Amino acid sequence: MSNEAVLHANVGVSGHDAHHDEHHGHHHETFISKYVFSMDHKMIAKQFLITGMVWAVLGGLMSVLFRLQLGYPDSTFPWLEDILGKWAKGGRISAEAYYALVTTHGTVLVFFVLTAGLSGTFSNFLIPLQIGARDMASPLMNMLSYWFFFIASIVMLSSVFIETGPFSGGWTAYPPLSALGDASPGSKTGMDLWLTAMALFVVSQLLAGLNYIATILNMRTKGMSMTRLPLTIWALFFTAVLGVLSFPVLFSGFILLIFDRNFGTSFYLSDIFLSTTNTALPNEGGSAILYQHLFWFLGHPEVYIILLPAMGMASEVLSTNARKPIFGYMAMVGSMFAIAVLAFLVWAHHMFVTGLNPFLGSIFVLLTLLIAVPSAIKVFNWLTTLWRGNIRFTPAMMFAIGFVSLFISGGLTGIWLGNSALDIHLHDTYFVIAHFHIVMGVASMFGMFAGVYHWYPKMYGTYMNNTLAYIHFWITLIGAYLIFWPMHYEGLAGMPRRYYDYGVWESFKQFVELNRFISTVVIIVFAAQFFFLFNFFYSIFKGRKVTTTNPWGSNTLEWTTPIKPGHGNWTGEIPEVHRWAYDYGKDGQDFIPQTVPVGDNETQH
Amino acid sequence: MSMFFTIAVIILVFLVIFQIAKASEYVSVLKGEEKSRAQSNKINGFLMVAFLVLGLIGVYLCNKALYHKTLLPQGSASVQGEKVDSMLWVTLILTGVVFVATQIVLFVFAYKYQENPKRKVFFFPHNNTLELIWTVVPAIALTVLVVIGLRNWFMFTSEAPANALRVEVTGKQFGWVFRYAGKDNEFGKKYFRIIDDAGNNPLGQIWADNEQFRLKADPANNDDIVVQQTMYVVKDKPVQLIINSRDVIHDVGLPAFRMKMDAVPGTPTTLWFTPKYTTKEMKERTGNPDYIYEISCDQMCGNGHYSMKGIIEVVTQEEYDAWLAKQTPNYLVANPPAEPAATPAVPAAKDSTLKPAADSAHTVAIK
Question: What is any Pfam family matched here (chain A) (predicted)?
Fold first, then answer.
């Protein structure tokens, strides 16, 4: 491991330290400044986490509701009308409500839970703690990023309660459907609110991302060269870079959409005649496909924005609990770098059937399948990390192993879909649903659970209950496979996604029983998440107290802080770093924290 | 009432599990951390292999239960689709082997290397040979898949053969309109602002000069045939679809033929394939007397998306010719000729949208 960056990092950090220590004595914290408008990265992390959890419950509940329709298309549930009113007349969810639920479920889970809830939580929590900084480069920007997210959440939530309903054209919001209120009631006010919420969300992401990058590059403690960073930090770093480069493109796409919706422009609109109003629109010359390019230029990196933090945390948790160094540290960093670069060059694989130029399509096939190589490297490195280790099955470790399993299962079907000739057949079928839910949805969720279980003692100074965690893990893992595995078969039968009812389709109505089975499992898995939620909130107050600063025997810096670190993280000097984060099992020692100087007769590697 | 009962039961189950979990935590505190960890390690290590074994059995059973419901056993109904299927099998075998191998390694390692105080961890931070192997091997495997895939891709997206039957498909909320070029084998020009559903011009064919939009009538329109819902194509004859949309983005999904293409307003797209079996033959092949080739809309297009269904009727050349002979060009349907002599025997009564006046005029002519 190299030492070059040591002196470099030192300058920035020491200046920051002096400034901070000055203020430490007379730092009065009121309820508002401590819990609401907090500038402590740890509190902001918790705010992101808990807001993300609220959204996860809402988004999950939405999936339960629309799965009820898919599983029991001919049954009625009178209580649904009690809850949803006109959206479920007679106890059956209307098509309009079904599409609104599907759309909101997608938007919320992708952006609010797996982007803000995942990287928002762990970037905030882990970056300063693991690089050895008192706080973020700009605590104020950090606070603002949360509150922009919060306002975005409020706006999104409010769209559920309006007369014409929330946006219902799918989370990708393709125009012209999303541009024309007359094409779908959900594209009226609901879409305005959706766009507003998403615009605010982009602002939140940019504030956050710039801050993360600045912090990682400038505020590492003495000795913490880039090549000594834990893989979590590398992952969060690439995540932030991806977000900063791609969210503005999404934003520009939204701006054009807002213009088309409200100011009569024709960026995306051309040749449209609406049967509902029996009129032709005056717009000519726009390209509906342009939006898809802008959307997927974020949309694909977004997949990695969601996945990379999970990969980073899984790496950290696997290594710590296997009591063995992560295998191929540089290869892990390199593969994440490759993924981050390639993430920008594969977006059109979502558009193979839009009439894309075949030559252009072939380039995207090549680049898409190329991205499987770094992914494969990562998997093999994780497996080798387990080999001849000494594995402790902490709940975090269980979820990290589950993450690897799901990442393999979902990643391999990506090889099917990335190959355009096969994608023609499988595009927009349940095969795609199965693929991205396993690899991006559930796998990332598992990464998030691993992170929460692992860093919970640092967050709250208490442990979560292990037995509940194990029950939670096994139900969720088994349930995830039971839900999504059979969907591959529905996809291989050509069953299209986003259908409210398959009753009139000769080819697809054969799956009635299977759909019912899947819906039943969905309900069980959703219910099992309450084990986690209850465990989480109960343990904050009543959990077993953490009595040692380093409960997992981990090497990274966050475990050198007090059990419940205050604002500023370390009470005295920030510790100096002398080695990489993965000296587990070296020279017969169980673990050697990063703060321990390298001994004279230590073996080299 | 039963509702409250169910909720009460669920809460009760939760509470019981929670109490057990809480109790087990106290027990583990009493036992000491090391010992309780050893115990939970043992249980979870066992569950890991159990999950692997039961999971793989589950995969097998799932396949047994569902394979026959997929499109694979009945084979592709188009010549091009055979390539899709064979490529699918190659990909399946390749990824399947990797799947089984890596999952076995993952869970077996988890089981085998669970904590054992006697084991000394093997300090193994990196190994260039290994890393090179698992960079190069996947790269080679993927190259093979890319080569197969691109060969097919370029074949599917190539120009349709010159003898292909051309059908224009237009998607609208929520149905399909098909247009055949008629005798001149040329589609007449159209313009979306003169679309007139009530006036029998769902595509906006320009068959009269239009001052407002400065359009000139295109006589190629006069023999174009427009039908809704069901499209007729010929067995063993390539068919090219020219795909449009009238309002939002739709998608012509043809799972039986392994084909799919978006319908984008303002940007026509195409796809072509060669049907292998007539609908009748397909009924026999699948053993399903109700079998039909369905066109599913595969791109979210509004609240009626799920019901946007079209039908493809694959027939023999003779049947097709017979069907075609019975069709009236849309121009004549919409503009019934005033001069009866000009139209020899047009079976107009077939089309229900005809105005009664036109109908009676026709009856007079035949008399």
Answer: COX1
Mean pLDDT of B63-70: 95
How many angstroms separate the first and last alpha carbons of chain A? 8
Cβ separation A288–B266 shorter than 8 A: yes
List all residues of chain B from 11 to 70 with a beta carbon under 8 Å from chain A: 14, 17-18, 20-22, 24-25, 28-29, 37, 40-41, 44-45, 47-48, 51, 55, 58-59, 62-63, 66-67, 69-70
Domain ranges of chain A: 40-270+283-588
| Chain B, nearest residue to A412 by Cα | B95
In tens, the pLDDT along B186-225 reads 999 999 999 999 889 999 999 899 999 999 999 999 999 9
pLDDT digits (tens, 9 = 90+) for A164-178: 999 999 999 999 999
Q: DSSP state, A33?
A: I
- CA–CA distance, A66 with A405 (Å, rounded to integer): 27
The secondary structure of A45-64 as a DSSP string is: HHHHHHHHHHHHHHHHHHHH
A28-31: Cβ within 8 A, 24+ apart: A29/A567
Q: Taking residues A65-74, report their average pLDDT.
A: 93
- Are B199 and B111 contained in the same domain? no
Q: Note whether B204 and B227 are same-domain residues.
A: yes
**pLDDT 10s digits, A487-530:** 999 999 999 999 999 999 999 999 999 999 999 999 999 999 99
User: Which of A82, A388, A426, A521 best tests the B interface by mutation, with the highest count of B CBs <10 A?
Assistant: A388
> Do B73 and B23 lie in a common domain?
no
Average pLDDT estimate for B319-323: 95
User: How many angstroms separate the CA of residue A512 from the nearest CA in chain B?
Assistant: 12
Cβ distance of A421 and B149 shorter than 8 Å: yes
B323 with B345, same domain: the answer is no
| The token pair that represents A369 in the structure block | 């399948």
CATH number for the segment(s) A40-270+283-588 = 1.20.210.10
State the complex-level ipTM. 0.91
Same domain, B246 and B312: yes
